[in-house]
Write a structure and sequence with these properties.
Length: 381
C-alpha cells in the first residue's frame, strides 16, 4: 500500500511539472479572454501593425549540460527601404542602467534611427554589432570612406541561466540572416530569437508584442511594441491587475529579480525625437503594471521610432519640412503605449514554452490552466 501511494504521488509530481502542462498549446493573452486596457489592437496585435515595420528572428538551440545553447538574435526594421539615407525620427530612454543598448546616445543626440535595431544576449553584443556593421558596409560600400561610419543599435539581456553565454554563439552570418529574413505580418513570440534563453518573473520569458490603434477621429494612428522580457521576481507578477505570481506554485528559475527588459516602440504618428522619448517614458508604466518595481540589477531600456516621415541623410537644402503632432494631443498615444507594453509582456509569458538549458536549469512556462483558474478566482474572466 505504501509503495502504491508513493508511485501515485510520484506520478502526480511528474504530471504537475510536465511540458504538457507548462509548454503545449500556448496562446496569447487576448485569446484566453484576458483583455488588457480599453483600446483596440491592430490586425496582428503586434509591432508590425505599424505599416512598414518588419521583425526577424534567428534562434540557436542545441546541446545540453554546461554547453547548452539557448540563445538567438532578433531584428526590428522601421521600414524595408533605404534606412541609411531615409532615416526615421527616434528617441530613447533608460529607466535603469544595469545593461546596454548601444547607439542610444546617438539616437537621442541625432534624433533619428539609421540602422536596424538588434536584440541578443549580453556577451554577444559585440558580435551582433559586428554583424550590423558588416551588413551595412556591404549594402553601403562608401561607409567609412566617403560616407559616415555606422553606430549599431544593439540591446541585450542576460540569458546565462539557460544558455552557455560564455560560448558567444551568435555569428555575423546569424545577424545578416536575421536582418534579411525580417518580415511584416504575424510575429513569432516566446522562445524565439533573442528570447530563446530569457526568463521573466522567474518563468520562461522571451519575445512578446502587442499594438493599439487610435480611433479615426484621433488620427487612426497605430502604436506597436515589442519586448525582450527577462526581468522580475515571481511574487511580483501581476496580470491585468491580478496578483498571479503570489498564487502560482511553480519552480522558479533565475537569479531572483536580476534581469533586464528591452522595449522597442513603433508608431506611424508624426512625432519628433523629443515626443518619442516621452512615449518611451510612458512605456515604463506598462512594465510596472506587470508587477516589477525596476530593480537595482535590472537593465530597463526603451527606444521608439516613427515611420510618419523620413529624415534625409545628406539633404541638399538647408531645411526640410515635416508635420508634427501637437503635444496637447499625445494622451491617446501615451495610453496606447502603456497598454501595448503591458500586453506584450503578458503575451511573452503566455506564449513561452518550458525550456531546459545550461546545466539542466529549467525555466517553466506559465501554466495556462492554472492562470485561468486564478483569473476566474478574482472574477477577471
Amino acid at each position: 500500500m505504501k509503495i502504491a501511494r508513493l508511485v501515485l504521488f510520484t506520478l502526480i509530481i511528474i504530471t504537475a511539472l510536465s511540458p504538457a502542462v507548462f509548454g503545449d498549446n500556448r496562446v496569447r493573452a487576448r485569446d484566453l479572454g484576458i483583455i488588457i486596457g480599453d483600446m483596440e489592437p491592430g490586425k496582428y496585435n503586434a509591432i508590425t501593425d505599424v505599416p512598414g515595420v518588419m521583425v526577424g528572428h534567428v534562434t540557436k538551440n542545441s546541446g545540453d549540460g554546461e554547453k547548452a545553447v539557448r540563445t538567438g538574435v532578433t531584428a526590428i526594421l522601421p521600414h524595408g527601404g533605404d534606412i541609411w539615407r531615409e532615416k526615421v525620427p527616434a528617441g530613447g530612454f533608460v529607466f535603469n542602467g544595469c545593461g546596454e543598448l548601444t547607439g542610444l546616445h546617438w539616437v537621442n543626440e541625432g534624433g533619428a534611427l539609421e540602422v536596424p535595431i538588434l536584440l541578443t544576449n549580453t556577451h554577444c553584443v559585440g558580435r551582433v554589432s559586428d554583424g550590423v556593421v558588416g551588413w551595412m558596409m556591404k549594402k553601403y560600400p562608401e561607409i567609412g570612406i566617403t560616407d559616415d561610419v555606422v553606430t549599431p543599435v544593439v540591446g541585450e539581456c542576460d540569458d546565462s541561466a539557460l544558455n552557455d553565454i560564455r560560448g558567444r554563439h551568435i555569428t555575423e552570418d546569424d545577424v545578416i540572416s536575421c536582418i534579411q529574413g525580417a518580415m511584416g505580418g504575424e510575429v513569432a513570440e516566446g522562445v524565439v530569437g533573442a528570447g530563446a534563453g530569457m526568463i521573466c518573473y522567474q518563468l520562461k520569458g522571451g519575445i512578446g508584442t502587442a499594438s493599439r490603434r487610435l480611433p479615426d477621429e484621433e488620427g487612426g494612428y497605430t502604436v506597436g511594441v515589442l519586448v525582450l522580457a527577462n526581468f522580475g521576481s515571481r511574487e511580483e507578477l501581476i496580470i491585468n491587475g491580478v496578483p498571479v505570481g503570489k498564487e502560482l506554485d511553480v519552480p522558479v528559475c533565475g537569479r531572483g529579480n536580476a534581469g533586464s527588459v528591452i522595449v522597442v516602440i513603433a508608431t506611424d504618428a508624426p512625432l519628433d525625437s523629443r515626443q518619442l522619448t516621452r512615449l518611451c517614458k510612458r512605456a515604463v508604466i506598462g512594465i510596472g503594471r506587470t508587477g516589477t518595481c525596476g530593480h537595482h540589477g535590472s537593465g530597463d531600456f526603451f527606444v521608439a521610432f516613427s515611420t510618419a516621415y523620413r529624415i534625409p541623410h545628406y539633404p541638399e537644402a538647408r531645411t526640410f519640412t515635416v508635420t508634427r503632432m501637437a503635444d496637447t494631443h499625445l494622451d491617446s498615444l501615451f495610453q496606447a503605449v502603456v497598454e501595448s507594453t503591458e500586453e506584450a509582456v503578458i503575451n511573452t509569458l503566455c506564449m513561452a514554452e518550458t525550456v531546459t538549458g545550461r546545466d539542466g536549469n529549467t525555466a517553466y512556462a506559465l501554466p495556462v490552466p492554472r492562470l485561468m483558474e486564478i483569473m476566474k478566482k478574482y472574477n477577471r474572466l
